[in-house]
Task: structure prediction
Amino acid sequence: MAELKLLDIKKSYGAATIIHHVDLFVADGEFVVFVGPSGCGKSTLLRIIAGLEQVSGGEIMIDGKSVTNVPASDRGLAMVFQSYALYPHMSVYKNMAFALENMGLARDDIDRRVRRAAEMLRLTEYLERKPKALSGGQRQRIAIGRAIVRDPKIFLFDEPLSNLDAELRVATRKELAALHSEIGGTMIYVTHDQVEAMTLANRIVVLRAGRIEQIGTPLEVYNNPANLFVAGFIGSPRMNLLPARVQAAGQLVVAGETRAISVPSTGTAGVGSEVTLGSRPEHIEIVNDERADLFITLDLVEQLGGETYLYGSAPDIPQLTVRRDGQAAYGRNERLGLRLNRDALHLFDAGGQAIGTR
Result:
């Protein structure tokens, strides 16, 4: 296992800069997830670490040694891609053993590594089968097993679950989490799915347009987003973001409403300043008119059995989402009064940066 440092990493293609001055430290044994929308540079950054892309500037260090100019084959890393990239004419055993044979390892050592990885990934009974006889989830486990047998310094995963259906994604995600607990390897994982990021990561790196927006544990990023982008990207459904105005110190008024909402601090946003107020769907209460901060008319009700999502609109604000536990009996066009949980509010200034509210 190994630690990784990225120091002022830049990547350009001609005049277009894809990665901007990225600094990152990944500790030995850590599971770090790069998350962000399509085109944010997360896969490019992973390929730079792997040595499949050359940097335009900066330094890559593994265990204190620079590997910036070291070929991919000599970095001691293993990468699992979105496509399984298995040899269709080889058995599962041969697919997992092939790289080790090319490395010239002894047959007994190869057999021990392959069978150990197969046992961890529940592939032992399939070792003599060809990939075409297996499901998508099993094929992806073979690709992961092929990485495990190499005993790499760092595992790199580039959206490995995106080709699987929803049920298989959940099952394989659990297997990956269990695998990390068992072998304790340093793992870097790329995804655009923030549910994968939240459930797998020790730390999340949120990327946008080739820049790091925030780094933290899943709950740190969820509970304390650094800016509007992170607030809107992390969380499903997304955080409600409401345009508001500072009426007085510690007092806000949501657009289209007249009732003031108290917050501990409005930071440097002076009276009359335009700000954005954030509240997650689970932090909104349905109340009577006297206690309501604002009112919505329901556009859609989603009954999911164990929980209900209410989507409502009001003048001058984006559609609001409210989460209720269980099965809530509300109907379309119903008018509801809402109160925002004061202990879980988020406030952002005109530049989109978070203002501490608690």
Observations:
- The CA atoms of residues 312 and 320 lie 5 Å apart.
- The first strand starts at residue 4 and ends at 13.
- The chain has a mean pLDDT of 92.
